[in-house]
Amino acid sequence: MVDASPGTLTYQEFFSLYYKKIVAYLTNRCASKQDAEDIASESFFYCAQHWSDYDPQKASYSSWVYMVARSRWKNYCRDHRDNDNIDDYERILPANVNDMERAVWITEVRQELAQALTGLSDNQRQAIILRYWGGKDDQEIAAVLGLSAGNVRVLIHRGIHKLEDACGNRLKDGMSI
Questions:
Q1: How far is the CA of 31 from the CAs of 8, 24, 116, in angstroms?
Q2: pLDDT value at position 133?
Q3: 83, 108, 132 — which closes off a domain?
């Protein structure tokens, strides 16, 4: 990913360059696109308030905005922990199942994933999210998490293996009904 030279963007240019990317990053983590847009707006509002505090020596624009978005997303998750909606899981279901099968499968997958994710450290979860949904490379993830690129590779590798061990082939193979 190409980032602008440190300290060279106006806030308007920064917003134009990163807003859609941050919304896409958050859309894969939130229950709805509206929630993702709300969190992105909060993130950019924070960046606007702290624009004069930005230090290109500490992080690139990309790393900074992803760190802010990640923080706002974590706040959202903490605040909405009990508001999980079963309909949010429909996008991974095959289209040819009836409503009862759909509800049972969604419930089972939700339970398996929730259990599997608890087995990951916070850094493993975030590294996997940033890599596969955020499109970040090892260096960018390392900057967001405050780790080395080698450590990021290890986190992702081990996290993926833990998820595979916990969930088996259930999501790869789809429903077995």
A1: 35, 13, 19
A2: 67
A3: 83
